[in-house]
């Protein structure tokens, strides 16, 4: 299992809002968030998906030459992540399905947690290519 920690700062929220165009006040206005029953601004759902990207994990360096295509992503959001939170992002390989002598589809689950609380679970599927030596092993 690969694991890393991400600090969800105001700057991270602002940068994601600038890139995505999602400027809903729930993501930056503390008074607005509190008026809606939240303790602070909350992370964009797609920001949480972005921090689960395979390329953002320690596994990426081992797989970047094998990547053929991203096939899909499914996300389930359980609880909000707040501005200022430090979240743990952990990746587990769920399944590897051989497709040919040198390709497979790999499924990964990436969890976003604050302490013991699960905030989001994201599954990614990728087509991976292996060299002839790896396929023969």
From TrEMBL:
<dbReference type="InterPro" id="IPR029069">
    <property type="entry name" value="HotDog_dom_sf"/>
</dbReference>
<dbReference type="Pfam" id="PF01575">
    <property type="entry name" value="MaoC_dehydratas"/>
</dbReference>
<dbReference type="InterPro" id="IPR002539">
    <property type="entry name" value="MaoC-like_dom"/>
</dbReference>
<dbReference type="GO" id="GO:0019171">
    <property type="term" value="F:(3R)-hydroxyacyl-[acyl-carrier-protein] dehydratase activity"/>
</dbReference>
<feature type="domain" description="MaoC-like">
    <location>
        <begin position="3"/>
        <end position="107"/>
    </location>
</feature>
<dbReference type="GO" id="GO:0006633">
    <property type="term" value="P:fatty acid biosynthetic process"/>
</dbReference>
<protein>
    <recommendedName>
        <fullName>MaoC-like domain-containing protein</fullName>
    </recommendedName>
</protein>
<dbReference type="InterPro" id="IPR050965">
    <property type="entry name" value="UPF0336/Enoyl-CoA_hydratase"/>
</dbReference>
């Amino acid at each position: 299992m690969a694991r890393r920690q991400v600090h969800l700062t105001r700057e991270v929220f602002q940068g994601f809002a600038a890139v995505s165009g999602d400027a809903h006040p729930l993501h930056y206005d503390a008074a607005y968030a509190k008026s809606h029953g939240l303790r602070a601004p909350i992370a964009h759902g797609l920001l949480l998906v972005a921090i689960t990207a395979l390329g953002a994990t320690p596994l990426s360096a081992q797989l970047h030459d094998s990547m053929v295509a991203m096939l899909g992503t499914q996300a389930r959001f359980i609880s909000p992540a707040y501005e200022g939170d430090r979240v743990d992002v952990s990746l587990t390989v769920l399944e590897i399905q051989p497709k040919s002598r040198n390709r497979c589809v790999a499924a990964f689950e990436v969890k976003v947690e604050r302490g013991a609380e699960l905030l989001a679970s994201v599954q990614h599927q990728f087509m991976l290519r292996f060299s002839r030596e790896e396929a023969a092993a």
